[in-house]
Amino acid sequence: MNHKITYYITILLAVTTTLFSSCKSSSSSVDLKDFKIKDTASIYRFTITTNNADSISLSRMNENKVWMIENPNYRANMSNIQLIMETFYRIQIKQPVSKNAEKNVIKRLAVSNKRVDIYDKGNKLIKTWYIGSPTPDHLGTYMLLKQNGIKGSRPYIMFKPGVYGSLDVRFFTDWTQWRSPQIFHYPNPNDILQVSLNYNQFQHESFIINRNNDEIGLLDSKSNSINQFDTVQLKHYFTHFNNICYNKIMFVDPSFRDSIFSSEPYIDISLLNSKNETTYVQFWRIKNVESSTNWDKEYGFIRVNGDDELLRAQYFNWDIIFKPLSFFTNDIRR
User: Fold this and answer.
1) What SS3 class is residue 228?
2) 10 Å Cβ neighbour count for 229?
3) Contact 51/131 with Cβ under 8 angstroms?
4) How far apart are the C-alpha atoms of 183 and 280, rounded to whole Å?
5) pLDDT, tens digit, 9 for 90 and up, residues 108-124
6) Distances (CA, A) of 269 to 24, 109, 131, 208
């Protein structure tokens, strides 16, 4: 009798263990492969985190729905944002990871990955991507998907059609690369009401341009009205403020930065827009004893709105707004 009881208990334990193992296997082995975000307009925030605990969050959960870096609080570079959104939308499976390599790839993903959390307008998590290393031929990227709190059990080799290279390089955490370099960005020149340029060493070439609807006016450094000027050139001048950018953030010794800030700028630039917002930029030339002019011919330093941040600007980009007063009046006065 005792043998029969022992036998039935053994059978019951075996069946229970088999059922538990089966349930555990089915719950932990979920093949998730819908990486694509079909409606990128639903994305309002995403974060990128590395295994080294480096992270960055970008969001457009603000009144103007402008993409911003959350910390530090800077406007995001839209070229990078658009590249990420395009990746979210166009990403495709190149092929599943082979069964032989699957375990090894999962181990590598656990050790080294970039985690990308994607959120909607209500800050609800839509999907999480785990982005690993590129394939040996660098034509694909190992990735794993997590959705609705469940992490997929099978990694895939992902790619974006038309792109030959790894996708992981698009997902970086350096805020200086995510920050928009734009100082002046006015695709519509009618959004500019006034521009003032003050040449501290050449006051006679300083000027102020005022715009009131279709009317435009020119003043000298003492705010005296100038009646004869090239109207076409004056109106066209405002179009140059479409994409004026800094070239580099200068992480320098504070004493060096302060010595620049305490010196007289070469040019002071002030722009008033239609929202009654003013952007004030100070521009300094950089000394270069090896140059024939003793000044660097490629770069200058700038400070924006009195911030304690030294930026570098490139003449190639800024020269177009460095016009003297005579540029608008010489041909007319002859």
Assistant:
1) coil
2) 21
3) no
4) 10
5) 999 999 999 999 999 99
6) 67, 50, 44, 10
